[in-house]
Structure formats: C-alpha cells, structure tokens
Amino acid sequence: MHKKDCSKSMCQCFIVPTYILENLAQNEVEAARVTIAKSRQMRRRRIFKEYDINGVVALTDAGSGRHGESARHVYDCKGKTKLRVNEARKEGDRSSGDSVVNQAYDYSGVVRDYFKDILQRNSIDNEGLDIILNVHYGNKFTNAYWDGDEMVFGDGDGIIFSNFANSLDVIGHELTHGVTQFTSGLEYEGQSGALNEHLSDVFGVTIKQYHLKQTASDADWLIGADIMGPSLKGQALRSMKAPGTAFDNKLMGKDLQPDHMRNYYKGERDNHGVHINSGIPNKAFYLVSMEIGTDKAALIWFEAMQHLFATANFNQFVQIVLKAAHKLVDGGKVPDTAIQSIEAAFNAVGLPESLK
Amino acid sequence: MHIQFSCVGGMANLDLNVVIDTDELPQAKRDQLQHLMETADLSNLSLGKMIEAKAKGADAFSYKLDILEETEQQSFTFTDTTASGKVRPLLDYLRNLAIEVKLAE
C-alpha cells in the first residue's frame, strides 16, 4: 500500500478504519477489541519512549522484593514529587511506623484480593503485575491519580482534604484505572472517559461494601467520604446514590454531577466532563445493585468491562452490559431478573439515548 | 511579571485559578517564587513533553501557566503525569496559593 508522508506529528494511520474496528468490537470480535486497545497503547508508548528512556528503564524494576506476584510496594515521597524513591514497605514486610504507608499497603491488598478472589483477575494486568503506591506526594497535594504505571497519593491540605491514601474506595478507584487501562483502555475524554471514571467508582464502592460486609441498602454509596477534611465531615467527592449532592463548599463549589441524560454536561471542562457525567451510569449501577445486590451487579459490570473498547459511549455501554448480563444469567451466576433490572435502571437515567 | 495559573480536574475535579503580580508580593514570597521559576527552567522546556498531555493515566490535574513579562507572553500546559521533576515544585506552590486565595474569598 502506498503511504504518503504524514505532516502532522500526532497522525494516526491504520489499514482498517477505526469505525470498522469499533463495529467489529461491538459484535464481540475479540481481536478487533484488542487491536483498538493495543494500538493506542503502542502509539502512546512510542511517544513516551522518545523523550523519557530513563522512565521506561525504571518501569522494568520496581525495586527489591518479589515480582510478577502482584506484590505491593509502597514508597514514601516525603513531601517531594519524585516517584518510587524511598521504599517504605514491600510485600511481606512488617508494619511501618507510618500509618499512611500501612493504610496504603492494607487497602491495596484488599483491592488486589477482591479482584483475584471474587473476579478471578490476577492484579492490574491479569499477569500478577506488582502494585506500586507512592504516598506523601508533594506539598499538601490535594489529589490521587493513576499515572499509567503506578498510583500517587497526596496528603491533602488538611482543611478541605485529609490524606488521599486513607480511603479504601479511593485506592480501589485508582487501582481500577489500571485494570481499565489493561482491558478496554477507555479513552480519558467525553463519554468513554466518563465510563472510565464510572468503572473506577463502581469497583471502589463495591470493594468497600464487600470489605465492610455491607449490603446495597446499608451502604452510603459515597466516594471519598474518608478523605474529606475535618470541617467537611459528611461530604464526599461523589454520591452514586444521589449524584449532584456529594458536596457544597468553598473550595470545590457545588457538586455538578447529573443523574439523568437530560442534565448531561456538554462543556469542555474536566476532559469534557469525565468526573461529571459519570454520575449518570453511577446512578444506574446503584439502582441495579438495589435490585439484585451490589455483588451480582459488580459481576455483570466486570464481565462488561472486559468487552468494552477504547471509544465506547454510553449507548454502547448499555448494550455491552446487557450482553454481559445475559451471559451470566445463562451461566446461573446472576438471577434472571437482572436483565429487567438493568433495563429499568438505564431507562431511569435516560439511557439508551435515542439518536436523532 | 504577571502570572496566570489554573489547576483543574483531579479526582476531586477542582477548578483553581490565581493571578499574581509579582511586584505586589512580599519580598520573601517573591524570592521563593523566583527561585522556583528558575528551577523550573521553563524557557528550556521541549514541546515534545507538553503535547503528551492526555496520553497516560487518570485523575491527574491539568495545569495552565501564562507568564507575561513586559511585552513577552509565554504559555505552558502540564498534567501531573507530564510535568517534569523540575516544574513540579512550582506547580505545588502555585496550586497551594490558588487554594489559599479561593478559601479567603
């Protein structure tokens, strides 16, 4: 095939057009789904390697200790911004003198074990990838993030936010971003980005309920309630039960999350609303969980997660969740009422949206 | 020198902004900011690092930094995952200043 030189530095050239791959992926052509995810990852790695070969080399060694056994490594950034410098606790080590290090170690173990024991997934990549957590990052850093390779947690400002590592659902949320990266690779933009955020909230809250032995009706359905500072007790980052009601304070403003497609956020902020519009599928997951139990709903969502593709939108997600539910109903793993519950829950939030 | 800084997104989806006229800062703060800017070495940042902004990860903050000095203006964008180690202390400082300003409003 004759190929012209590309003048644009970010040009993406493929033999099979992306829309065809998407159609194939929607029809469960596994190879197409994998191609979409892997080709995007490959492009990104190539860009990455161009300017940071040291970073690539560092990724091959997470420090001393066991490897490929989903071993935990907790690093203390000591208020600086360099990652993976001072290893404070690794798999099998005794408790550290630092409670934040211990919380990160313990909670990441809960998350890892949930994925392995309940969902039969061996760590982030299903190949036993080591789990790396950096705590005490930066000076009053008011965030936690997944950087594509490892997790990072700030101490918070002590007023609005306390330490971001002191929360099981926050650690579950961040680690699930890693799982998403290695399954669908959902693009972090618009509806696919909101689904990426949604899945992290789903498993963050599900693992917390599992750990606390709560039912859907016992649980608070809040994400990040444990990291709110002393003056904001009772608030949280998000409410899956009642999106749009989690917070109202001077720093964060008022919670903007919609709970229905009619209030869908169409602005540019937040990568076109990835943390905002996730409220819509979040509400649907809550409604399904109230009907069939969070554990069963999570099984369906996890099955769906493995059949998503990088550019999936909300309507496509509904179809994939329903297909996953049919499969699990047929296998006797979830009750047959699940199908009706899912359809009703998505309808309650305005999905699937009719295309004009 | 005028500095316009914004920090948006992150797991808490924050929206922080601050505008600074360095001439109006107390001497100690001005010196600290000057030192952080020298360390950041912004004038030598490569374009390649900045266009990588959305390539990896999730929940990272997105930062925008506009610097106006006399008639020359420079603009920079970063995320937590793309900012170099030299720039991160400056972003830390400006983000905390933006929080301080917002809470004082």
Q: Would you mind describing this structure in some detail?
A:
The complex is a heterodimer of chains A (about 350) and B (about 100). Chain A has about 350 residues and is of the alpha/beta class. Chain A is built from 11 helices and 9 strands. In chain A, the strands form 3 sheets. A 5-stranded mixed beta sheet of chain A has the order 2-1-3-5-4, with helices on one face. In chain A, strands 6-7 form a two-stranded antiparallel ribbon. In chain A, a hairpin with a 3-residue loop joins strand 8 (about 250) and strand 9. In chain A, helix 5 (about 170-180) packs across helix 6, helix 9 crosses helix 10 and helix 10 packs antiparallel against helix 11 (about 335-350). In chain A, about 50% of the residues are buried. Chain B has one domain. Helix content of chain B is about 35%, strand content about 30%. Chain B has helices at about 25-40, 45-50, 90-105, and strands spanning about 1-10, 15-20, 60-70, 70-80. Chain B has a 4-stranded antiparallel beta sheet, covered by helices on one side. The chains are: A alpha/beta (about 350), B alpha+beta (about 100).
